[in-house]
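[step 3/7] fold_predict: job queued, chain A
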Amino acid sequence: MEDFVEVERRIGHTFEEPALLRRALVHSSADAVSKEDKDQAKRLSWLGDSVLNLVVADKVFNLFPNATRKDLHNMRDRLTNNKTLFNAATRLGLDSFLLKGDSLERNPMAENRHEMLATAFETLIGAVYLDGGIDKARAMIRRALKDEFRAVLET
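[step 4/7] structure written:
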């Protein structure tokens, strides 16, 4: 977990406050982490989810000026669902950097792995947003979801 330079390289953001990145890479199942750090990671996830929705909504709104509200909603949902976020987290290799509990470490096929990695991606977005602002978060999201944005454009 201490290879923060590699995480920063993969997401395209160097943290001014490395503690934010450290906190973003904590899963609630982690044994050796304080309740406060786990709670703060959950808060980062909530924030990251909101930032993600804003960035994606802004992008599809501007890409599709004639789309209906329903169409915009469906595109945003397609770009922000757990499957999409899991795929982005997997491409970034977040699983290898995430501090998890022993049970998840021993069981890489755990039932909640998709949700866990999707949440980790949102948590990372929240950390990037707090550390670098909306422009840095937007850049990270667009890089991480570029294939998914391209797929939306092709439909």
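[step 5/7] annotate
The domain at 4-154 is CATH 1.10.1520.10 (Ribonuclease iii, N-terminal Endonuclease Domain; Chain A).
The two ends are 38 Å apart (CA to CA).
exit 0
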